[in-house]
Design the sequence.
């Protein structure tokens, strides 16, 4: 046998021998990606922050049945968290708002609970819609409303009589924004959704798990319009009404691109943002976020969105501690770990209450430090 043939035979023998020794795949070790969530073995200091370092104002909260809500219980929960004032954005307006305000005023907690009003755009084609809406705004402010909340439906899914989407910068609504400026109240607007909702639902989508668990959140490229189109309409509105103060909810969905958010704030001096539902984005970029808060410390307000008392400590931990590699409380929102920003006290005070005291009229400043 030639040396070449001998070498080939030996190679085949070795390969077969190795294949014979390979351990069969254990099917019990196969699991779905969403099930894989091992506890970290990292040993680092952990800080339990159950109460905010300074009293704070939550400018983005929803209490749908506040007219019947136990407000003594609510304020006790607020005290536990060191929340000075909660802003209920679900005031609805008109008689519904009056019922809420009567309940708040009778509770003895009227300096702790603030309400924004809402308007109805679906009746925009009615002849007296504008007149009635402006009258409602004046009435709502007269009974205690401190601002106007615009839901994402009032720029995404609401349609006029012809079935056309009512854009948030529709010129028919312009007198409403001007009236808010005249009344001295801010307008908080939720525009669009996280941009990943418009992206293909595949292995490249960071919100893959959320879209699997909440498939109704998935949007097609033009459902109801592209992400950039909807945000662009809101930004156009901000530019058109410099005399009105706007709060762009959820950091305008730019918390994952703070340089772009900074440019947006530079271009729109009448706009501030709040951090509701985007704390996980801030917590995964502690150095960039810290630089952002330093530069734009006068332009960011504290907000939470869903009122769940047990979730606030995660916000406090991200903002106040220097902890490393800790989880968000909803893995389907953020499968990554977060890091504390360790914000300086002067920045924390502005984020927690000073900026809100400046933006929202009539708040009780005596509840907070100088």
Sequence:
């Amino acid at each position: 046998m030639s040396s070449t043939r001998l070498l080939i035979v030996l190679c085949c023998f070795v390969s077969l021998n190795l294949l014979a020794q390979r351990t069969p795949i254990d099917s019990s070790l196969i699991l779905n990606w969403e099930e894989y969530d091992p506890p970290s073995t990292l040993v680092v200091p952990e800080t339990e922050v159950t109460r905010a370092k300074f009293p704070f104002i939550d400018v983005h909260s929803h209490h749908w049945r506040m007219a019947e809500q136990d407000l003594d219980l609510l304020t006790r929960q607020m005290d536990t968290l060191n929340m000075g004032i909660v802003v209920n954005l679900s005031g609805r307006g008109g008689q519904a708002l009056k019922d809420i305000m009567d309940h708040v005023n009778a509770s003895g907690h009227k300096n702790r609970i603030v309400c924004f009003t809402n308007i109805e755009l679906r009746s925009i084609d009615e002849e007296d819609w504008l007149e009635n809406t402006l009258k409602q705004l004046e009435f709502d402010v007269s009974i205690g409303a401190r601002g106007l909340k615009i839901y994402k439906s009032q720029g995404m899914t609401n349609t006029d009589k012809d079935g056309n989407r009512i854009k948030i910068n529709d010129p028919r609504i312009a007198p409403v924004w001007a009236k808010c400026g005249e009344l001295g109240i801010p307008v908080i607007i939720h525009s669009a959704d996280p941009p990943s909702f418009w992206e293909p639902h595949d292995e490249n989508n960071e919100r893959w798990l959320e879209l699997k668990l909440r498939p109704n959140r998935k949007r097609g490229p033009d459902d109801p319009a592209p992400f950039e189109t909807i945000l662009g309409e809101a930004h156009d509105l901000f530019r058109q009404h410099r005399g009105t103060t706007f709060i762009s909810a959820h950091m305008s969905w730019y918390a994952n691109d703070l340089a772009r958010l900074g440019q947006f704030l530079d271009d729109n001096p009448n706009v501030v943002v709040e951090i509701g539902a985007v704390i996980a984005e801030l917590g995964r970029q502690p150095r960039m976020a810290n630089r952002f808060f330093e530069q734009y410390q006068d332009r960011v307000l504290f907000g939470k969105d869903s009122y769940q008392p047990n979730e606030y400590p995660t916000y406090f931990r991200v903002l106040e501690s220097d902890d490393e590699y800790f989880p968000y409380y909803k893995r389907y929102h953020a499968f990554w770990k977060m890091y504390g920003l360790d914000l300086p006290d002067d920045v924390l005070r502005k984020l927690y209450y000073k900026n809100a005291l400046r933006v929202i009229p009539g708040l009780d400043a005596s509840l907070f430090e100088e």
Remarks:
- The domain at 54-367 is CATH 3.20.20.140 (TIM Barrel).
- The two ends are 96 Å apart (CA to CA).
- The chain is about 40% helix and 10% strand.
- The first strand starts at residue 56 and ends at 61.
